[in-house]
Amino acid sequence: xxxxxxxxxxxxxxxxxxxxxxxxxxxxxxxxxxxxxxxxxxxxxxxxxxxxxxxxxxxxxxxxxxxxxxxxxxxxxxxxxxxxxxxxxxxxxxxxxxxxxxxxxxxxxxxxxxxxxxxxxxxxxxxxxxxxxxxxxxxxxxxxxxxxxxxxxxxxxxxxxxxxxxxxxxxxxxxxxxxxxxxxxxxxxxxxxxxxxxxxxxxxxxxxxxxxxxxxxxxxxxxxxxxxxxxxxxxxxxxxxxxxxxxxxxxxxxxxxxxxxxxxxxxxxxxxxxxxxxxxxxxxxxxxxxxxxxxxxxxxxxxxxxxxxxxxxxxxxxxxxxxxxxxxxxxxxxxxxxxxxxxxxxxxxxxxxxxxxxxxxxxxxxxxxxxxxxxxxxxxxxxxxxxxxxxxxxxxxxxxxxxxxx
Length: 406
Known about the structure:
The protein is of the alpha+beta class. It has 2 domains: 59-169, Beta-Lactamase (2-Layer Sandwich); 194-398, Histidine kinase-like ATPase, C-terminal domain (Heat Shock Protein 90, 2-Layer Sandwich), CATH 3.30.565.10. The chain is 51% helix and 20% strand. It contains 11 helices and 14 strands. The strands form 4 sheets. The protein has a 5-stranded antiparallel β-sheet, sandwiched between helices. Strand 13 (382-385) and strand 14 (391-398) form a beta hairpin. The longest helix is centred in the middle third of the chain and has 57 residues, at 171-227. It is elongated.
């Protein structure tokens, strides 16, 4: 049956529509990833630039970090030049010419003394001197004719300034400079918190060393002295082990070590304790070789074993057992230390870990606190205990720790 002209027209229209749909889909698929509207793209660029700057301010206001962050901050403010200062010196300059620290600090000084944002016009810059050597500064042809300096504050204290230079400083640049200075203030505060956290960790390590010092050293020396006449060779061996253990415990470098090193220190500690307890102290170990290289906080295991000896087995009549296990647990290495000693009241344990109970178990509390500070609250100690039922302590540390080096 012949096709009419009308039918041909309909068929052609359908085919044309199909071609248009296919072309439209192909064009959409071939386009780069849609980043949204112009406003969305601007927001992304701003956040990305801020993220680039933040990594250089993690140590606070230091010249090296400030120099690298300044070019990103200049991009954020879209100004001709940018300077960063602390309370006493210019830390960075990003702009034409070389930095003129004296000129920058003369301007920054007014902000440091008042804590308020200051806008400087042509006459102010002329009085201060050219912002950058090689830049014309007050010359009419120079783009650095005006500037705004905003305070960097940590708490009530002004610790530095952000200075932006431009042909003209308007309300928009003033607001932007204030926001950038407030953001830099937050980064500096975070750096101070990190520093305070590290100081706290160091203080807790010193507390653990102080705990080891009087009790363990006294008992170890007594045990060594008891072998001097009856078994001189054993006494010499114990002296070497004692020296190696104390050297490790009182070392002055590094907040982290490997599980293998920590276990080696534990082995020396238990060797010295067995010299005192004799057959009363029985120890078994089950260590997976795949976790030996895992990084752990320095002195994070030995205090737990000492806790098992001092507060678990020392107060128990007869033979006491300690079992130490370490194995792979997916992204973590899991370590357990179990004793069949006298145990403790769970309510008292909670009080100890919360820091509400002074005296005994300071090592337990300090280790728990350090683990939470380093890895987060999900990585604190898990302790199962009850009076007369012994104690099982479990800790889990990430196997992958690029920021921590032994």
